[in-house]
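The freezer alarm interrupted the setup, so I double-checked each line after restarting. Inputs confirmed:
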Amino acid sequence: MQRPLRITLLTLVLAALIWYGHSANPAVTLRDCLADPERYEGRRITLATEVTVVQTWPDSLIVHQAGLKVKVIGPPGNVRPGEYVSLIARFRSPGRLELEALHPARGRRAKIVWSILPLLLLAFFWLAAYRFDCRRFYWEERQRCRTS
Amino acid sequence: MPDLVTHGFAAWLLVRPQRWRRVRLLFFLGTFLPDIISRPIYILFPHWQGYTVAMHTPLFALLCGLLAAEFMTPDLRRCARLAISAGILLHFGLDLMQSHLGDGYYWFFPFSWRSYELGWFWPEATVAWVPLWLAIITTAEAVLAWRGRHSAA
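Predicted 3D structure, all chains:
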């Protein structure tokens, strides 16, 4: 198969998978619940992606996810405002959650910061080892360039 | 996911031997690829998280690896496909060991929405080991460089 055809085919399949992953995902999100509270009354949901604590009280907390804030009824434990958490809760209309399980994701910020280092190192060594041939549109080994 | 230093350390243990020299960077690229293509999107734009569900799955990452290999020089392309794919499998091997609240990763996407994980550690737990991984890599690389200079002399 020709290279342009392979690139086009792979790109189309990847785009289709992204679309399918978005449209067919059975997981119910906080946004779904808040958009149609009656429909999702009592539904068990997981908030795990980029959820931060806004405020805490002894018996409840407010969390933030993707521009949405929601009150969660249940003991926050020792989590503090600004920390990342993941939680499982039951949705209660019109816009509350009843906490079932909470995991403080301490170290998530450090994890994100540390993860930049290997990427910088990879970029550095990659650019030292390969150069991009703009005419043929591929990376070739620098050593090979000098000897060929 | 464990942090990328931990992923990188695991990759370094496997491909540090000299015989892997030519494919080393490609293997590292594969090891980081599942996170490179998915994490920045939902960390910077949390509203788009739904679109990243597919990206951190084995099939998507492997196809993405094959696409990346198309941008390597023809004599390296076959090697690149294998090295990037092997790196991706190592990445998911480590991810499989994690624990999450609720669903973990969708290993058989797009054929199944079931997830499974071994639950040995939380995703952030590996951060505590990062200084140790870095110390081991730095020391070993320094020793290897020193030995290389001495044997050359």
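Quick read of the result. Chain B has a mean pLDDT of 94.
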